[in-house]
Design brief:
The chain is an alpha/beta fold and 490 residues long. The protein has a domain at 88-108 and 232-455: Rossmann fold, CATH 3.40.50. Helices cover 45% and strands 17% of the residues. It is built from 21 helices and 16 strands. The strands form four sheets. A six-stranded mixed beta sheet has the order 4-5-15-10-11-14, sandwiched between helices. A hairpin with a 2-residue loop joins strand 4 (91-95) and strand 5 (98-102). The mean pLDDT is 96.
Amino acid sequence: MKYFSTRNEKLRVSAAEAIATGLAPDGGLFVPESIPTVSGEELRALLSMDYRARAVNIMSRFLDEFTAEELRGIVDAAYGDNFDDPAVAPLRKLDDSTAYLELWHGPTCAFKDMALQILPLLLTASLRKTGEDRGVCILVATSGDTGKAALEGFRDVDGTRIFVFYPDGGVSRIQRLQMVTQAGQNVGVCAVRGNFDDAQTGVKRIFGDADFAKTLSERGWFLSSANSINWGRLLPQIVYYFSAYLDHVKQGGIELGDRLNFCVPTGNFGNILAGYYAKRMGLPVGRFLCASNANNVLTEFLETGVYNKNRPFHTTASPSMDILVSSNLERLLYLLTGEEKTRDYMAKLNAEGRYAVGADTLEKLKETFSAGFCDDPATLDTIGKVFQEHGYLMDTHTAVAAKVLADYRAKTGDRTNTVVVSTASPFKFAADVLRALDQPAADEPLSALAAVGGMPVPKPLSGLDERTVRFPEVAEKADMRAVVDGFLAK
C-alpha cells in the first residue's frame, strides 16, 4: 500500500517512508491510498483474540511491507510488562448504556502510550527498510501528554534523539515534572513562552525550513515527528476502537453488528480521527461525539462548518486539549473533500486563521459527528458527580467527554450504547480531581487522592517530586530552531 500527501496525491511513498518522514514535504499529512475493510466474519474472528493479536491483524492491513513476524515482535515489545493491566486497554462498564475505555495503563499513565510505545519500533524498522543511515531527531510539540509518552518511548533508542517543546505554564504540574525529570542520554526538553499552538507552529516551521534540513543532513541528522501528524502514530490508535467494540460484545453489552457510539475528548483531532478510520474500515459505529473544553474551535466547526482559530486561548483544567489548531482535521477534510479543497482550506487557515466548508461537506460531517464542550466548573462537577454516584474516578479530560455525553443524551434522547474514551489517569491531574471531590488542597496530592479514591498511586508517578530536574530551560518562540540546533550539536 502506498501513501500520499493530503495536498498532493501524486506524491506517493511507501509506508516505511511515510513513517520515517512523518510530515510530507509539501506540509501535508500522509494518508493511505485506500482504506482496507474488515468484514463481519473477520470481525467475529477478532473476538477471540487478545489486544496484541488484534493489533497485528488491524495494522498489517496498512503495512504490507512488514511481515506478520515483524509486526508480532513489534507489538509484543510495545505492549508488555510496561502496561499494568493484562488487557492493555480495558473496558470498564459504568451502567447499562455507558462504558469507559481506559487507555492510560501504560508507562506514562496517558493514552499517548498506546501509540508512542509502538512508534519507536515502527520507526526504527522503517529506517532499516528505507536504507536511511542518518540519525533521526524526533521533534515534538506537546500540550501535556504526548511529550512524556514520546520521551519514554524513544529514550535511549539507538540512532535516535528526541526533543520536546511544551508551553510554559500550560501543562499540569505532574505533566511538567514527568518531562523535566526524564531519564535518557538522547533526550531534551524545553518550555516555550506561549501556548501550545505557538509551540506547534514553531515545530512545523522548523520542519519546513529547507536550509536547516540541509545543514542537519550534512551533520548526519534528519527530523521526524512523533506527533499524531505521523501516520505511524495514528495507525496504532485505530486498534483500540476495534478492541473496545469487541470487548463490549464479549461483556454482553451489545451483539456483534450492533452500532456503538464513541465519545472522545480531543484537541488535535487525532484520537477521534483514528476512530473514524475504524468506522470507514467497517466497524459498526453509530456516532462520534467530539468533546472539547472551553477551547471549543472543533465544536463550532462540526456544528457550523466554519473553522476559526481567531479567538481567545483558554488555559484549562484539561490542558492536553488546550489547542486551537487541530492538525489532524486535515486528514478528515481530505477524506471528505479531496486534495484540492484541502490544500485551499489549509492555505486559508495559514493566511487568515479561518476557513469554511460548504453545505455538502457540513452535511457529511453531521452524518457521523456530534460535538459539545464544557468549561472547568462543569468538568469538576462531573468528576464529583460520577464518583459519588458510581464510585468511578476520572481525570479532567475524561470528565469533559462524560459531560458532553450527558448533554448529548439530554438533548437528543439517544440512548445508544456509548464508550467514553478515557485518556489519562486521574492521578496525572490529582490537584484538580481533589478539588472536584471537595477535598482540601494537599501538600502531596497523589497520596491524598489515593486515600480518597481507594486506589494506589500508579508506579510511574510515584516519587516524581524526588527526581532531579534535568531540563529547566525556557525559550522564546523565535529561538526554537537555535535550541534544536544546539541540542543536535552536542
